[in-house]
Write a sequence for this structure.
């Protein structure tokens, strides 16, 4: 595990690589969480997480799905949705430097009864795509997935 000071240096000097989970239920609604941490604190965002050094994409995907929705999924069992970049003026620690993410987005359907959510978000809610695009407190990068 990285020390806080090492992680700060990484955020200051390199992009972070992450996985975003575009999760759809049987009604076609998308799961979003209201973020409790910066960047994008207080905004609705898809679940996801960063990839760790020396972690394969398959292992990172299983860990991220397990952590974010309560059960592991294999990356080859879902649809790769695309490669994205997210830029934030702040970071998880303070506002004095920016954060840059390279995001590997994946989309899949689940039975919402199977999901056990973590505490990375204040709350979770299922949204119609039209609601995602209309709401002012849905993060712009989440909206990009549906434009």
């Amino acid at each position: 595990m990285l020390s806080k000071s090492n992680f700060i240096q990484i955020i200051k000097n390199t992009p972070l690589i992450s996985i975003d989970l575009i999760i759809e239920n049987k009604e076609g609604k998308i799961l979003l969480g209201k973020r409790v941490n910066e960047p994008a604190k207080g905004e609705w965002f898809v679940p996801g997480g960063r990839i760790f050094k020396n972690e394969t994409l398959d292992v990172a995907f299983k860990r991220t799905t397990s952590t974010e929705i309560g059960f592991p999924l294999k990356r080859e069992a879902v649809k790769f949705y695309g490669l994205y970049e997210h830029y934030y003026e702040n970071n998880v620690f303070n506002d004095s430097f920016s954060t840059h993410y390279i995001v590997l987005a994946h989309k899949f359907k689940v039975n919402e009864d199977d999901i056990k959510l973590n505490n990375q978000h204040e709350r979770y809610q299922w949204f119609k795509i039209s609601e995602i695009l209309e709401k002012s407190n849905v993060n712009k990068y989440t909206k990009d997935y549906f434009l």
